[in-house]
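In this section we walk through a basic example: taking a raw amino acid sequence and producing a predicted 3D structure, encoded as discrete structure tokens. The instruction is simple. Fold the sequence below.
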Amino acid sequence: MRQEIKKIKIENLHLWTENPRDPMDPNFSDFDIIKKAVENEKTKWNLPKLLVEMGQHYDFSELPTVVNENNKYIIFDGNRRIAVLKYLQNKKIYQAFGGGMFIEIEPKELLNLKEIPCNICSKEIALDNIERKHMSNGSWGQLERDYFKYNFRKKEKSLFLKFEKATGLISRNPGLNENIMKNNILTESKLKEIGFSFDKEDNLISVYNEKEANNILNKIAELKINGTISSRGKDKYKIKKHLDEILEFKDIIKKFDKNDTKLVNYKKESVPIKNTRRQNNNKNKIFGEKISLKKGITNDIYRDIFDLYNYYEKNKSELSNTFPNLIRMALRLLVESATFENQDIAGYTNSNFLEAKKNLTQNQKTTLSNNSITKAQNLIQLLQAGAHDYANSANFEQTIAMSIIISAMLNITHFKNPKK
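The resulting token sequence is shown next.
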């Protein structure tokens, strides 16, 4: 068999664990894959956005590329679209992640699409099609390209892949997933210049203790993300020079010495990578900035909260210390009004939090982090506490942080002039 078009039931199609965009444990089920795609803040899947783009019907001009492996239909191309259908149609998956995915009109056509025409072909043809489609049009970053070449084209494992396996820094920071990072910054010579290398088993080794090694690796990522290490200027691509200029690393950075090495045990969650920018000292205001929402109860409550906030700011000296609690509770009412049919606060928040957070400024993200609102579940718990625990709702800075992410979610679901 070369290629043939054949209808296959959605439930019989299986997501590809070796997808170069996001390789996963080969033992993962479709549920596991979708769970990771939905929950991972740095996800490359972005299923809610794709569902909005898909609209009310499936575009049959883009057929999934499917390979029959051991009597299982594996999707080699089109995983995101099928993941959306599985999300909507599988009750277990839908309920596990709150459902909804910020849509106003239920996509009945997608819900009732139980089988779909697929391009069934051999693995060789599927890989050729994927390579032609994604390697040439720029839809893959450098990491995906290297992964594909190593796993499916028998090419040598690149230093870029070794570095990712040892640290996870590239996949967690999209700003590092570039050609110049591989060919001009994370080169063997530049890594050795600052005391790092790889042994014969592809383990990352260095001349530093664990804390020093972790701090240096995090700083390299930070310097690239904030533009200090770049492709411009007389100091382009230089790592050691910029590290030497940082007081923390003064007289610490040294060349690699194979006679004095230690295995690097990188702590992937030990230090968050910050995009260091000039800080704005202005106090955050309710909702961050005012946005225009379409007419309706949600817009009315949104405007009322603005008025309540302005009243508080002008008269706080005459008001009780518990007055801000009213604003916290009003935020819950606002989110309740924004939910769609058959959806609750948890469903709405789970569906919109990650996409909304991506649209915030770095200062706003910092405000969220400082107030322990780093994921959807944090916001859900705070909204619920605001309704049932009046005494513990007086943290006004946290209320402001809640309002900022809520406003960003409303900007997705209730914006006055949404993009089509």
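Looking at the output, two observations stand out. The chain is about 45% helix and 10% strand. Strands lie at 3-9, 13-15, 65-69, 72-77, 115-121, 196-198, 204-206, 262-263. In the next section we compare this with other chains.
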